[in-house]
Amino acid sequence: MLQRLKSLFSPAPPPPAPAEQWAAVDDYLSSLLLPPDPALNQALRVSQTAGLPAIQVSPLQGKFLYLLAKAIAARRILEIGTLGAYSTIWLARALPADGLLVTLELDPRHAAVARENLAGAGVSERVEIHLGQALDSLARLVQEGSQPFDLIFIDADKPNYAAYFEFSLQLSRAGTLIVADNVIRKGKVIEENSSDASVLGMRRFLERVAAEPRVTTTALQTVGSKGYDGFALILVES
User: Fold this and answer.
1) Count of domains for the chain
2) pTM exceeding 0.70
3) Rounded to 5 degrees, what angle do the CA atoms 91, 52, 180 make?
């Protein structure tokens, strides 16, 4: 009887911390919506073993990118920032057999891991990895008269996002969709007096995008297994 009374008046267990709940919800959604994928799981293992930072998009975010590419029937995709090619695989899978994905990577070690992962996923024939500074690679694409891309995914060093956007416009056409990752910076993007170069870079990027008359844009805050951040979605209209 005493034990029953104690249980009635015992404080309820504390709710899960927000980050724990976000991750748990991601796990639940992934278990329902993402069937097991040996190639993507292997890509994560290879990247981890190679010591790459675990900053790739989450599985649900990867599927989001895949669906965007599918929805616009993308045939040419540009990715700025390869890392271990996890997002690259998702995007390459959305392409038709004769489609092309150009991905830009600075670090030769990351590029080597990416090539291994792309081969393991069976999409190497659709992907070109351009090694070197992304701004140099973008300038070269412009100088060579590259055909416009249907979708551009920006997920690289944050201070250069505004410059990446400028090149993206030059490599776009009316109808191109530009997706920029990590634009919220855990909410710090609102800190106009920040000393964080990534926050300041993101503010420059968003302000530049907002001032560009050729595009229409929105930005979404996200939570999940990757924490608190967000995407910007930019449609080139002219």
Assistant:
1) 1
2) yes
3) 40
